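Local shape tokens

___
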Amino acid sequence: MRQQRTSPPREEESKEEGDDGIAAVGHAPPLQNGQLVQAACRDLVHLDFQAALLEEGFQEDGSGEESVIRRRESESQREPEIHEDTFAEEPSYDDGKMMLTDEEYQWARDIKSAAQLQPDLDKLPDFWYAQIALCDQGDVDAALHRIHGLQTFWKEYKVILDNLNSARKVVRESLEDLFPGFWLSLTYSPTAGHYTLVMDAVKLDMSVLATHPQAMDSLILSMFYVLHAANPDFETIRHGLYSIAECEGQDWKNSMGAGDMRRVWTEIASVYPIRYQKLDHIHTNMVVNMMWSLAKRYLPKNIRDKFDARGCSDVERLDKLYSIPTLEAANGRFLGTVMDSLKKRLENEASFSL
């Protein structure tokens, strides 16, 4: 059934476009001096994830520069029940999140028609054609290339898209066993219409490969499910994902090498149809800057332009904000959000048709 998106754009959003024509919600331009860096970091804390923390049971003490986010005493003293459903964010969905404009609808139809003419491509749910259309802005050739990449990824990693138990197992393994502390938060903002993903890059310790040779495969597959969870409907796809990475303490010893970064990019990051608002990295150092210099060689311009590095010397590490009351509780919240969103995604796929 044809659906049109009729809700007007939010006034607070500004749009920018990369070389590929993909618009993303605009953020502040690159910062030029230490004073602006500190101001932007305060804004980052108070505007981008403060609201999410308050929704999860935190409260703010003080105001201005002395403002501190802490757990409500009654909450911090209560013994948490660790179960992913207990900590799940429960975003409020409505039919407006699944609307397409006339132009978007035609893009999706064109991509679907072109894909069905290629015998080596499997048929996808119509939702996928619409998602790809929104990301590639109707570029049929780019869309077909992306579908080939997705199909290759699904076959190599034996992905069963409607198997939530498999997704739960993969994400849980990444959270608890292989890279504990790497995934900090996935939060949906009803007012902004997008998800914010928070990670601690320092906890992505690649020395685990010595004892778990398949850890890289598990990481890439968990990335697929997390990205998938951040795109459950057309509104979130349109607005794009806002990614924040904690980098304090990053060094060469256990970090990803150039080969690992290239593999992540070619196998999943460049294949999955997603739009990014911003890729913020805070508490960066010389190592992070050098790693970025290596990575940007194979990243397209529209992704490079969304990368931002901030010193943020007046903001504490993100794990102290998100791993409350414990890392185990934070893992439960994260997994609950992922599973709730994947379930909603499957429901939307089943009900949508071009």
Notes: The longest strand covers residues 183-189. The domain at 15-351 is CATH 3.40.525.10 (Phosphatidylinositol Transfer Protein Sec14p). The chain has one domain: 15-351.
